[in-house]
Write a structure and sequence with these properties.
The chain is an alpha/beta fold. The protein folds into two domains: about 260 residues, Purple Acid Phosphatase, chain A, domain 2; about 55 residues. The structure holds manganese (II) ion.
């Protein structure tokens, strides 16, 4: 069975000030053309269809267009909701869409109920695990003080139990939206840290022949059977080095996997350039980036006049301007943002406590208090989005 695995469309999202709807529509056409030309048996979309719980009308219309194209193509499609989607909103009409061959899985309670597709070698069971927010699905999976690992393990136990009851040799594909250990994040994923641990080990998915992951925006291979497709388009400059792709996966009769990367059309290259303004405007080596979307970091000790206007004369698609005047690391003027870069909320809060207490960090109880506070805020945000 041949699958086309994609995720993280984020329909409606823009890239800095550039609207991406046109590029997203182009991607949908590319997806459908690839499915037809490469004779794909099933398309899997592993969450974050939309960028927001309540997406703009144009994004909803584009999704509607995608559904029609996929249904017309006649290739069965399985989709799950991600942490950016409102599972309930996305799930509206799922029963009817299912009759058209588009299987939307947004209900945590349906984790163990597969979509069954078959080829000449027999059945393949597709289990759609929507994004599982621990605070919201704790009761469904009867786990206490749940983190991501606990709820995904419980969901996969249902998958394994269902699979065990099927004919021997039944192959399986699991769709999940999660941060799996070993994956490399970028700047455009929403933080899902809960209980201090966002990442779950790949071993949670043991028993599945192929695990089609969504959430991280870079295409990556964790094991032969566990892969992220990444987003089809870049949504932050941290993705400058990404090659945007989908996975074309062949699932053999014995469940073994071979996978090929299929490139996605990206409207414009990305580049990050750094230096003093005059150097950036003069350096002949930068000529190759003149048509790219640019993030420029200016290192001039004094902020130059009209930097954006001057940069866009040479680089008309400059989208982001960062000032990072050349200083030594112990300079007290070094920016607060730079000191915080790369640290999560919990670490920042713990370091703050250490700082204001003259070097004494929080004890275990205080760390738990901080962690619970962050979890409560995140759960509350999610509840408001889902509601
Ligand atoms: Mn995403």
């Amino acid at each position: 069975m041949r699958l086309l695995h994609t995720s993280d469309w984020h329909l409606g999202r823009s890239f800095h000030r550039v609207g991406m709807l046109g590029a997203q529509a182009e991607f949908i056409r590319h997806l459908v053309a690839t499915a037809r030309e490469r004779e794909v048996d099933a398309v899997v979309v592993s969450g974050d269809v939309y960028d927001r719980a309540v997406p703009p009308l144009a994004a909803v219309e584009l999704f509607d267009d995608a559904l029609h194209r996929l249904a017309r193509l006649g290739v069965p499609t399985v989709m799950i909701s991600g942490n950016h989607d409102s599972a309930r909103r996305l799930g509206v009409g799922a029963g009817l869409m299912g009759r058209a061959g588009i299987h939307l899985r947004t209900e945590p309670s349906a984790c163990g109920t597969p979509v069954l597709l078959s080829d000449s070698h027999g059945e393949v069971a597709f289990y759609g695990l929507p994004y599982l927010e621990p605070a919201l699905v704790r009761d469904e999976f009867a786990v206490e003080r749940a983190g991501h690992e606990a709820v995904l393990t419980a969901a996969m136990d249902r998958v394994r139990a269902d699979l065990a009851g099927r004919a021997p040799g039944t192959r399986s594909v699991v769709l999940a939206h999660a941060f799996v250990t070993g994956g490399e994040p970028s700047d455009s994923e929403r933080d899902i840290t809960v209980g201090g641990v966002a990442a779950v080990p790949a071993g949670v998915f043991d028993g599945a022949d192929y695990v089609a992951l969504g959430h991280l925006h870079g295409c990556q291979t964790l094991t032969d059977r566990v892969r992220y497709s990444g987003s089809p388009l870049p949504y932050s400059f941290s993705e400058t080095d990404h090659r945007k792709t989908m996975w074309l996966v062949d699932l053999a009769a014995d469940g073994s996997v071979t996978a090929e990367r299929v490139d996605c059309p990206v409207p414009r290259a990305l580049a990050r350039i750094r230096g003093a303004l005059e150097d950036l405007l003069a350096d002949p080596a930068l000529a190759r980036h003149e048509e790219a979307w640019i993030e420029a970091t200016l290192t001039d000790p004094v902020r130059p006049a009209d930097p954006m206007a001057r940069l866009t004369e040479r680089f008309p698609h400059t989208l982001s301007l960062v000032f990072d005047p050349a200083r030594t690391a112990d300079d007290p003027g070094i920016s607060y943002a730079r000191r915080l870069a790369g640290r999560d909320d919990q670490q920042i809060a713990e370091d703050f406590v250490t700082h204001v207490r003259g070097g004494t960090g929080p004890d275990a109880h205080e760390r738990t208090v901080l962690r619970d506070a962050f979890d409560a805020v995140r759960a509350d945000e999610t509840v408001r989005e889902v509601a």
